[in-house]
Write a structure and sequence with these properties.
Helix content: over 70%
Largest sheet: none
Number of helices: 10
Order of helices and strands: HHHHHHHHHH
Radius of gyration: 16 Å
Number of domains: 1
Strand content: under 5%
Keywords: Membrane, Transmembrane, Transmembrane helix
Shape: globular
Length: 192
């Protein structure tokens, strides 16, 4: 593996850990309500400190990849709150536009678009996996709203689009995200 691919994979892995911890922190009450294992429940208030540490390490290794993935995750996570007014006094869509603009300025349009496509794909596929638990929690994710098959096909189409846009970045990012996904599955088995 070349040095650039290795650093991109490591950055994507660390950034994925930061995103996972942040997501679990935000979802901790809902996950507890349905009995879903959540990393932040085990780490407590330290979850956000670890998330910041992982993101800082990822940015130190490969700022473009890690920041684009984190910004894209922020924007994709905002999809259900686009009209809501946030603590910044902006709506979700306004914050999303600012974050996309910042990501484009810092990482370049191609990397930011790649990250947005890739993270959207992961979100749609994850919604298929989480459909039953989200439905129990009263959460209507995309798979609940539009159907699992439609979300899975949409996710695969977005994965292919991200691969087409930047095949060289696709492999390390896919490897990093997959590593965290399988680590998450393994740790959840242990924590049960």
């Amino acid at each position: 593996m070349s040095d650039g691919v290795t650093t991109a994979t490591l950055a994507a892995t660390l950034c994925s850990l930061a995103i996972k911890l942040t997501d679990d922190w935000l979802d901790r009450d809902r996950d507890a309500a349905v009995g879903r294992v959540n990393w932040s429940a085990k780490l407590g208030v330290g979850a956000m400190v670890y998330a910041a540490l992982f993101l800082a390490l990822a940015a130190g290794i490969n700022a473009s990849v890690s920041l684009a993935l984190f910004f894209a995750s922020y924007v994709v996570g905002m999809f259900t709150d686009l009209g809501r007014r946030l603590p910044s006094r902006l709506t979700g869509w306004q914050e999303s536009l600012l974050v996309m603009a910042a990501g484009t300025a810092l990482c370049g349009w191609r990397t930011m678009l790649f990250a947005a496509l890739f993270v959207s794909a992961v979100q749609l596929i994850d919604d298929c996996v989480d459909r039953a638990g989200d439905r129990l929690a009263g959460q209507r994710n995309f798979a609940c709203r539009f159907g699992a098959a439609e979300c899975l096909l949409g996710g695969l189409a977005l994965l292919l689009a991200s691969w087409w846009l930047d095949a060289g970045l696709f492999v390390p990012v896919f490897a990093g995200v997959a590593a965290v996904y399988f680590l998450d599955l393994r740790l959840k088995e242990v924590m049960r």
